[in-house]
Amino acid sequence: MSGPGHIVDGGDLPELSSIEVDYVVVGSGAGGSVTAAVLAESGAKVAVLEEGGHYTKRDFNMQESWAYPALYQDHGNRATDDLAIMILQGRSVGGGTTVNWTSSFRTPERTLRLWAERHGVRGLDAATLAPHFEAVEKRLDIGAGNPDDVNANNRKLMEGAAKLGWQPELIRRSVKGCARLGYCGLGCPLDAKRSSRTTYLADAVAAGAQVYADCRVKLVETDRGRVRAVTADVLDRGSDRPRARLVAYARRGVVLAAGAINTPALLLRSKAGLDSGLVGRRTFLHPTVPLIAFYDQPIEAFYGAPQSVSVHHFADRGAAAGYFFETAPIHPMLGALAFPGFGDTHRRIVERLPYVQATIALLIDGHGDDTGGSVEVNGDGRVKLHYPMHARLREAAAAALADMARLQLAAGAREVMTLHETPIVIRNEADLAQIAAAPFGPNQHTMFSAHQMGGAAMGEDPGRSVVDSRGRHHAIENLWIADGSIFPTSLGVNPQLSIYAHARLFATEIAKAR
Amino acid sequence: MSGQKGESSRLDRRRFLKRGLVGGGLLLCAGALPFAFRSTLRRRPRAPLRLLSADEYAVFAAAAARLVPGDGAGPRWPTADALDCGGKVDALLAEVHPDMGSDFRRLLRLFESGLLGAVVAGSPRPFTRASAADQDARLEAWRRSRFDLLRSGYQAIKRLAHASYYSSPEIYALVGYPGPPVVPAVAG
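Above: the input entities. Below: the structure tokens describing the complete assembly.
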């Protein structure tokens, strides 16, 4: 090891450059950062290539107008191809962890069993993952849920669920010294959030890894069943257009951790490792359905820890798709995008912003016969995400809306409003019947996703999966995937912590095999 | 249950075909509308445009003017022009994938079309030259259309207009948002 590495801005790279390292890691979020740290600490020479820019707490000004274009994919405009589901996905040094709302859950054992029983995943049970979860939880300062984290927005979720016997739980958060400002999604100006930039990426750099910001990997180059290099466009941060090129040669291997949309897209663009026909298939989103309620007293959902309470009472609905409830912070722009209508009709909702409580239902996709969505790349390299809402998810959405409305009424809401383009106002149980009859086609109800999973599923059968149960590609022996792409279904909980733990397991085994 | 599923699957296929045909037709229309902007009522951008043409800018600015708080809002609410929504969106589109920018420009051409306006909302004038009431009717027709493609188009324009408007500090007080808290400087 030759001393600490650096985070290199793309602007400092020449027009054409090449590097040679033991391992190239593509992506610097949860999966990429811990992979880089483990490999660098094992003595390997590591380079991390990150498409987004390098920003620190001094840049995080808590303004939506700056944060979404700077810190999110497609400058905050990523969505399914029909625009029906807005996609919140990070893009900067730190990846999704820069803008994550800090909610931390281990992979549910029920989900691990499903993967073993139906998707051919082997040797990946709770006991195997436990030491990796413990290590990550320690590094990210994830402690027990803290009742002091609960703001008014989350308190309504807690109170409503408790009244209905739905067992609300405090959410464990990846923070240290959190001031509960409410701006996790715009980058933490205090570095209180334990993002990968402040934890595992810092560890990787301390162990000698080089991190290259502004480098969009375009191609994975393979030769006789091995990956030998990746090529990247170095982006001008002002215009986001290519200004230079970087070729990174990998002596030992490449680990893809660009996220569950960009990793499959990279393989598709490279025409590499597509033998299974499953790359970019079975993409899952936890399609998320918000419901707003108006209270007489201020809620101020724009302040305080964004998420501190969750409800998993409906996660297992037997043959029907399950769902779980959390809250969403509501700053003016995010709220305005979610609220239906336009002009003065829309204004009359926005004007009540301080009194709005927002509960969200995250639909657990892929656990039944719903096969999720797909990622494709067009001739110009643009990523397209297609996600048809399966009938079982539409049923779950309607059921979840009714249950969230019950919860909000139980918590004392004056009225509840669905975010159908023709909203339904609910003041009592009798009003709930309108929900099932309301249209739920694309763009007839606000939906978003902050959890992208699948698209390069793991499993032991090369005919049914892309990588094995330790992330190694079935056909390219020195290529691994260590991000949310590997999950055969959605998780049923927020995925960030699971991505860290799985990646740590994979990286530990890669390092051992050296 | 399996019967229902089969029926649903057939419906989905029919819906897809319908959407595909209508979508394909509309895109052809958009491609065959070289003169769609011939009578576009232009607005002057504040700064040189980076991606949109003057006509495309004018269509977006006209739509944004109706999408943000309007006639009933009172004078405290700034107009979309006052917050330079068109300029902000032009700057944003200049940095997204070129294909996304092209799609949005094509959409604006379609949205301006009097021909499509006549079919969709009974208003044969170009959008920029329609009355405020007709413009609202056009937006409403796209918003509630039974065709997926029109609803998608509405959402694309609506989201960019609302994002550029409601992320502006000028509207914070109007929506009861005190703005980000002051964070004490932290060393390091």
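Note for the figure: Chain A touches chain B through 57 residues (CB under 8 Å).
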